[in-house]
Write a structure and sequence with these properties.
Largest sheet: none
Oligomer: single chain
Helix content: 55-70%
Radius of gyration: 12 Å
Shape: globular
Number of domains: 1
Structural class: mainly alpha
Strand content: under 5%
Order of helices and strands: HHHHH
């Protein structure tokens, strides 16, 4: 796992309430990934996000997968073909 992402995931996990459904927590995760992508920082492998959260913080598979899904969506939205709709993603993850 990229050490920058380890530190970012550690920091964000400590600041959210155990999930990302709460709007503030969801926004923090989006902001963290946006900042990392703006700085052109990427994990070594996309699955590293999911695996790291589960192993280091004991995050459930569903929640770690949702956080990874946010990263993947933001990454793809920067390719110019898609758009980011925060409310759509929040609703998708809530169900």
């Amino acid at each position: 796992m990229n050490p920058v992402y380890e530190k970012a995931l550690d920091a964000i996990w400590k600041s959210i309430n155990g999930g990302i459904i709460h709007p503030n927590d969801f926004g923090r995760v989006v902001e963290m990934f946006n900042r990392l992508l703006d700085a052109n920082k990427k994990p070594d492998h996309v699955d590293d996000i999911n695996n790291y959260l589960q192993k280091k913080h004991g995050v459930t598979e569903d929640v770690s997968h949702q956080i990874q899904l946010i990263y993947e969506t933001l990454l793809h939205s920067r390719r110019g073909f898609q758009f980011w709709n925060e409310q759509f993603m929040h609703d998708l993850l809530e169900n």
